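ugh ok fine here u go
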Amino acid sequence: MAELVGNVLVGQSGGPTSVINASVAGIISEALNHECIEEIYGALNGVQGILQEDLIDLASESQQQIRALRHTPGAALGTCRYKLKKQQDFDRILEVFKAHNIRYFFYIGGNDSQDTADKISKHAQAQSYDLRVIGVPKTIDNDLSITDHTPGYASAIKYIAASVRELACDNESMGHGDLVSIVEVMGRSAGWLAAGAALAKRRDHPHDPPHLILLPEIPFNQEKVLEEVKRVLKRERFCQIVVAEGLVDADGNYVAADAQTDAFGHAQLGGAGDALAEIIGQNLPGVKIRVAKPGLLQRCAGHAVSKTDSDEAYRAGQAAVEAAIRGETDKMVTLLRGDGEQYASETGLAPLADVANSVKKLPREWINEDGTSMNFQFLRYAQPLIQGEVVVPHDNGVPVFARLDKSRVDKSLPAYEV
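structure:
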């Protein structure tokens, strides 16, 4: 395929992770190696920034700051949950691409973001505009189909498992067979994050906390859970429960959900831990109940990043550029697990249309028959992903993160109302 000469644009979308910026660093570093790429731009706040022509010059950033992106949480370019709703939005994006000779577009995000990238690519093709679009996976939820796992997930469960183990030390000192400790973790549609708490258990110690893991894949059974709690409290000083925010009942209704939805129609979740605490409190008088909500800390804990995760996120960014240079488009980078005894992964590609708006559930066969604990198949899957620690530089005892200059690219189009 003929070499395509032009500029790169990279954007970030959806909820940030602790390694999403490593993918940006991978894209920049690889793009600098190809003469057909003239400029490297970043879109501030995803597609919203593109619509408003808010672009920055990433090639002008210092190498020191680019390297620092590899250990910086959050989305350094800014992110959004904006849904492209009307034809004018797609027309505007193409106008911006033409005005700045964007020929390579890399969008880092989850399910909805891959759908957005696919639609932008299809619109460019319909207008006969040469553009190569590659999606880069990102989500702590780990629910993207086709890819073995997603960058961001491993670091989130490394943080969750460490926090659960730390909290258990506190619970052990305070409990006297009368304490229920509930940890509510993220996970709208799948239990990948809650399952990761199982990594807190020591090998061959099945009674270690967490004692119960409540997953969206297993409908909530109030009577069964109450019996399990009573059984654990007879044996242990405390009962530690990890619950996913997307926990549902037998009818498929969220145990706790807000009436509001986001731009993509997703229910605003949160409160499963409090709902569970209320149920236990009403049915088990005399039991002390504590609820912990790591919340956003799960996805921005730069101090707990998995080196494996960080390296794979960086490599996914590099692979996106390599694929686009080869002539690939309408694809998302995937991570493929090797078959050897030692964990290894390589990158692949999947059609954006096959990834967009689909959800990968936690396999039922990875959950024990009790429905509240994970078996060896999940542990074998997840354990390698959390290996290694990223060394984060510190100044006066606190971490130092990247601070981009964000040199603005001159606008050449009329303002656009978003």
